[in-house]
Amino acid sequence: MVFGLLSVIFVYMELTPELVDHLAHLSRLHFSDEAKKEIQEDLQKMVAFVEKLSEINTDGVAPMLHMGQVFNVLREDEVKGSIDRTTALKNAPGASDAFFRVPKVIKK
């Protein structure tokens, strides 16, 4: 369905040098005339590829969000022991009340 919609859009879209200039302006990029011609040719190839994809019969094929299977590779959370605040502050080079003291890093 998506490729069909893109195909309809691209059929009516002519890739002109003016369109390449407009895209370059929107992107805040500057290209030589030779580069613009090359970009126009590349865009035409991309549009042709999408048009070719729209010819594929996808009836009965479920839409995909990703090209492959995505699995959650994160481990399960486990409750583990940790040192208490008092022990952590004893190991610190400097402490003030319940906080670590660190050298000043912002000059004012």
UniProtKB/TrEMBL annotation:
Query: Which enzyme class, named as a word?
Result: ligase
Is ATP-binding there in the keyword field?
yes
Q: Molecular function (GO) terms listed? A: asparaginyl-tRNA synthase (glutamine-hydrolyzing) activity; ATP binding; glutaminyl-tRNA synthase (glutamine-hydrolyzing) activity; transferase activity
What NCBIfam families does the database record attribute to this sequence? gatC
Name the protein family.
Belongs to the GatC family.
Which HAMAP family does the record associate with it?
Answer: GatC
Q: Supply the name of the protein.
A: Aspartyl/glutamyl-tRNA(Asn/Gln) amidotransferase subunit C
Q: Which organism is it from?
A: Sediminibacterium goheungense
What is the name of the gene encoding this protein?
A: gatC
